[in-house]
Amino acid sequence: MKTKTTTETGRFGEDIAVKHLKKNRYKILERNYRAGHNEIDIIAENKDFTVFVEVKTRVAHKVYGFDYGNPSDAVDAAKQKRTIAAAKAYLYKRNGCEENDKMVRFDVIEIYLQDVAFSTKPALLKIEHMEDAFRPR
């Protein structure tokens, strides 16, 4: 496979996550929403929730397995804090306050890809959608 940058791999994983969310009846409101230095990969909603989604993608290499452990391990306390701050900024911009007409939820979607030799795109091995993965403290 052509060597992909982490940005390209992340974008590919986010595209898969968007398809997954749409298939499960979520409406995509924003992608790569920025509030200062903080970013939210996907903002979506369903009939009950406004969902702020962090997408983490990992590529399995035939010999070595997955790099860097489980994707969700990268959503540590600091990342959660930044995501929550960006979510508050989004809600304030959208509603004029941090209140929302729907319940708010923070999800993590893990994307596992298989690195395929001589292919321009890795193959999807597994997608893991962790609803309510973390909450504001």
Shape: globular
Strand residue content: 35-45%
CATH architecture: 3-Layer(aba) Sandwich
What is the top-level CATH class?
A: Alpha Beta
In CATH, the topology is named Trna Endonuclease, Chain: A, domain 1
Mean pLDDT: 86
Structural class: alpha+beta
Uncertain residue segments: none
Note the total helix count. 2
* Spatial separation of the terminal alpha carbons: 42 Å
Kindly report the oligomeric state of this protein: single chain
Number of strands: 6
Major sheet: size, sense and barrel closure? 6 strands, mixed
What proportion of the residues is helical, as a percent range? 25-40%
Q: Order of helices and strands, N to C? A: HEEEEHEE
Q: What is Rg?
A: 16 Å
Whole-number tally of structural domains? 1
Secondary-structure map with pairings?
Elements: H1 6-23, E1 27-35, E2 38-45, E3 49-61, E4 65-66, H2 77-95, E5 103-114, E6 123-134
Could you walk me through the main structural features you see in this protein, from its secondary elements to its overall organization?
The structure is a single chain. The protein is of the alpha+beta class and 137 residues long. It has a single domain, classed as Trna Endonuclease, Chain: A, domain 1. It is 27% helix and 41% strand. The protein has 2 helices and 6 strands. The chain has helices spanning 6-23, 77-95, and strands spanning 27-35, 38-45, 49-61, 65-66, 103-114, 123-134. Strands 1, 2, 3, 4, 5 and 6 form a 6-stranded mixed sheet that branches. A hairpin with a 3-residue loop joins strand 2 and strand 3. The longest helix has 19 residues, at 77-95. The protein starts with 5 loop residues before the first helix and ends with a strand. The model has no long low-confidence stretch (mean pLDDT 86).
